[in-house]
Structure formats: C-alpha cells, structure tokens
Amino acid sequence: MAAPTLSTISGLHHGASPLLRARTSSTMCACMPSLAHRKVARELVAEAEARLLPSAVPADVLEFRNSTGTAVGMLDVRRGVPASSIDFMLYSSLHCKVPNGAIDITSVLISLNALSDAPHFLMEFIQGSPSSMVVILDLLPRKDLALHPEYIVKYYENTGLDKQRENIEELPQTRPYRSPSLFVRSACSPTALSVTIDCGHGGESTLEEIVSSHLASAVKEVLQIWLHSCAGQTSEMEDAEREIMVRRDQAVRLKSIEVDLTANLPKMFGPDVSSHIEYSDIQWVTKTKRPGPILDYLGKVGVRRDKLPHLLHRYPQVLHASIVVDLAPVVKYLQGMDVKPGDVSRVLERYPELLDLKLEGTMSTSVAYLVSIGVARRQIGGVITCFPEVLGMLAVARMIKKKPYVLGFGLED
User: Fold this and answer.
1) Where are the transmembrane segments (predicted)?
2) In the chain, what are the domains?
3) Predicted structure pTM score
C-alpha cells in the first residue's frame, strides 16, 4: 500500500491528545504489535528519561481503542524537569487493522521552550507492511535558515548531522520520501532523514535487521547530538526575537495538529474517538506561552535585564506562570514581610525557585518559625533579603524544632 503522507502522519500523531476520550469495549481484538521500530522508540524515550517529569496523562489515555476493536493507540505527554530547556515530550504509537494488513505509526516529538532557540527533536516511523516503512528523523529548525546561516553552522554543520542521513540513504533498500505538503517540507531542516525503506516481498527479517541496527544507531546518534548541543543550551535573544520564535513554534505545532486531522482520525479510530477530541486542550498541551508579559512584569519589579538569563535558567517554569495567580502574590507577600521594594528583585534574582513555593505552607511556616526562635518581626525583611533561601527551609525549621541543640551554632558557623 502507498505510504501515508507526512502531513497525514503529523495530524494523526498530534491528534491523539490527552483529551482524546476513547470508549472501551469488552470485545477488543486489536493489540499493539511488538515491532522493532517500537523498541527503538522506547529506548529513545528511556535515554531522555532523566530530563523529563512523570507522565502528565491519565492512565485511561495511556492506552485507547476504538469501539470495534480494530485500532489501538497509546500516548504519553511529559514536561521537562525544572531548570530544563525542554518544554514537553509527546510520545505516541498507533496501530490500525486494515483489510490488507495494518498501519503502525510511532512518533516522538521533544519540544524545547523559549529559553533556547535550538531545534526540536522529531522522529516518526510509519510501517504500512511487514517489509516496508517510512522514516522521518530531524531536528526541526526554529529560525529562518536563510536569514540565519550561523544557525545552520551551529546546529547542523558542526554537529555532523548530515552523516547520519547519508548512512541510511546509502542502504540499497532506501529511497527518498518527499511529502506532498510544501508546508511540511518547509518546516524540516536540510539534514532531515526522510526515506522509504522497502525490503520487497518476504523481506520482513531484512527490515527488522535494518531497523534494529542501522536505524537504531542513527536515531541514538541524532538524539545524543540533540541532548548535547540543543537540550542543555540557553540562548541570548532580544524580546522581539523571542516572541517571533514562539509564534513560529505555535504556528508549526498547530498546523501539524490541523493538517488532515479530521480526515484521518475517523478512518483509524472511527467517529466515537474523533468526536471526543477537544481542540482547545490539544493546543494547551503543545502551546508555549509567549514570554513577553512575564519578562515585562519581572522588569517592572526590578529584575535587571542582564540577570534574566540566569533567572530563567534556574527556574524556566516562570515562563508558564500566571502573573495574577503565581507571580503577583509572591511579590505582595515579600513586600508584606517588609522586604524593601528595591530589594524584591534582588530576592528573585538570588532565589527564583521561591516563585514555586506555597505562600500558606512553606513560606508562612518558615517565617513563623523564625519569629518563634527570636527573630524580631521588623528584622524578617532584612533576613529574607540577605538569605531568601530561608523561605524554602520548612524541612530545616522542622529539624530545628526536633533537634533544638543545633541553635548552639551561630550563623557564621
């Protein structure tokens, strides 16, 4: 059968969102086949595990099926750990029985946040028969390459990415795969691996060998390049430049969700599943919040422009915060503790993680304990300004309460 188009694949991949509510059936007959390319994907995800938070999707979405039992899918969405430039990872795998066989699609997208302008990681395997499949492996650029040749040199030329593409394309069983979508082609890099691997009739074992050795090696190498050269990087950018990049990210993600989505999900999972997709929540999963208002607010409270990269590196989650719900209450609390207006920025620059602390709980309990051991109320502001970390020291406060003899040591000790 003809290989699906890349636009179709992207639509299917992103369409399987955490809000996709599949109705289960007691007579399910489809199961997720154990294919070589799925093992490659699992190993890839395991390699990135340390940089990711636990799964953000409910258990009943980690696996979903259509009502007739002919299609099964899984989806995992995981955010990056604190201080990471990773925004989220989308890992999905779909299996659908068709009259002449089955279609199996496995995708991994690891998206970076606005701390960095480095490329996103994309891998997709589309197997339409036991002996043939389409492979897409790329680091998706986030800048206009014609306007930024230095970006090509930094992320594509100096890293030797093109060697991995060449290694796969040299195999006699491969031929180039070109998406009919001009938009999809424009979103890929010059080093993108986009091929069809066709091992011919009876070539199942040959395909498995290619996937398990050559392809697995290429995927691992590209991931290592991305983890080393992209995932751990932050980038100095003007606010306007960062805004443009974020808008570009959103446009590419939304386009990948929309292209052929309504046409293809019903074909694979039927109306039961496709009718339960909630588009606004799909967008939430793949959306990077525009940093402009957040950065403007931090500037208004006094955080210096040259300190922003350090603050964002220490606590990148601030880019996803709400000014009204998350940031303003913390600033108000600090001012209520007699931290001088000019010192609020100093506290945030030194200990940005306090933006994640609970006002009623960690911070209030820590302040109450300082008072209980003799720190005068009028001195609290000065203590917080000099040692803002004390606001997160609930565990230390409890330790002192249980082991008061540690108070025999002075602060200088």
Assistant:
1) none
2) 6-285 (3.40.1500.20), 292-408 (1.25.70.10)
3) 0.67
